[in-house]
Amino acid sequence: MGCSLHVAWNDGLTSYNFGPEHPLNPVRVELTMALSRELGVFDAPQVKFIDAEAASDDLLRLIHDPGYIEAVKRAGKTLQPDTPYCLGTSDNPVFPDMHDAAALVSGASVAAARAVWNGETEHAANIAGGLHHAMPRNAWGFCVYNDAALAIAWLLEQGAKRVAYVDVDVHHGDGVQTMFYDDPRVLTISLHESPLTLFPGTGRPDETGGPSAEGYAVNVALPAGTDDARWLRAFDAVVPPLLAEFQPEVLVTQQGADTHALDPLANLTLSLDGQRRTYQALHRLAKETAGGRWVVLGGGGYELVQVVPRAWTHLLAEVAGVDTDPQAETPAEWRRFVRERTGEVPPLYMTDGRTPDFTPFEAGFDPDDPVDQAIQATRRAVFPSHGMDPSL
C-alpha cells in the first residue's frame, strides 16, 4: 500500500478562469483530474477526496491587505479594472466572481495543509493551487490570492515552528518569498529560470532573507536551456542538504510543470521524465526530513494538453505511492475526452521516453559551466548561515 493522500477538490476550482485566450487555462486541471481517474490513481484505498471551501476574509487577511481583498471583490462584480492593485492587466484580467474563485483555490490549499497538520493523512494535494506570485497588496503573474503563502501562514498560526517551501516552477516564487522574507520559521527554496531572461525578474542568489532570517530565502537561478541532467544536479546540490539541516515540521511544495521543453512561456528544457524524477526526490525528502508531512500544490504550466496533465498525473501517483508505468500508453478514453474538450491531438504515451540522470555536484565543480556557477553562487550565499560549508 502506498502513502495516504487527501486530494482537496471541488468542481468550482476550475472557475479560476481568466478567459479562453489567457495562458492559465483551467482545462489543464480538468484534463489532469480526468487522466488520473482513468489511470486509477484515485481508486487506491489510501486516496481520499476532501471538500474545498472558499477561504474566509479573516483567513485571507493572514497574508493579504483588507483593501486589496475588497478591490478583488469589486472587480469581480463590476468587471472594471482596478489598476492600483494590478487588476485588469493582460496578466490579471478581471472576470466574474473573481474573488470567489480565487478564495476557493486558497481554501483548498488550506484544507490540504489542515489535513496534514491534524494528522489525518501523510500527504495532501491541491493541484489547482500554487498561485505563488500574488503579493500582499496586489495581483501578480496570473495570481490573485497566494494560496501557497496562505497555507504556510495557516500552519504558523497553528503553532508550526519550521515550514519548508520548495518551488520548482520555472518562474521565481516571488510572492511566497516576499511574505516570509524576514521570518526564520519559513525556509523558501526556489529553483527557476534566471531573472535575466524570464518573469518576474527576481530570484537572484543574493536575495537571502531579511535581517532576522538571513539565509532562509534560497534562490537557484538557472540559465535558459538547462536540461534534465543539469537541473537535477542543481536540485541535488541545494535542496536535500538544506532540508536535512532545517528539519521542517511540514514540507510545502509548488510543482509548476512549466520547466518542460514544450512550455511556450519559458526556456528550460526538462522532459516529463526529469520532472517525474523530481517528484520522487521530493517524496523521499518529505519522508526523511519532515516526518512524511507533505502538502503538494500545482502551479504554472502552459502546454495544456501535451505536458501538464501527464506531469501532474505522475505527481499525484507519486504522492499516493501508486505505481505508474512511464512507458504506458495514455488511456483511450482520456484521449477521446481530450479531442472532444480541446480539439487537439492528445499524447500517446505517459512520458517522453527519457532516462534522466545526473552527476552530483560534489563530484567536481566546473567553473566554466553556467549551471555550476549558479549552484555555487547559491551555496555561497546561504549555506554559511546554516552552519554549512558551501565548498566541495
TrEMBL record:
Keyword Iron applies: no
Keyword Glycosyltransferase: no
Domain Histone deacetylase residue range list: 22-318
Biological pathway: Ketone degradation; acetoin degradation
Record keywords, A-Z: Acetoin catabolism
CDD domains documented for this protein: HDAC_AcuC_like
Family to which the UniProt record says this protein belongs: Belongs to the histone deacetylase family.
Name listed for the protein in its UniProt record: Acetoin utilization protein AcuC
Species, as recorded: Nocardiopsis mangrovi
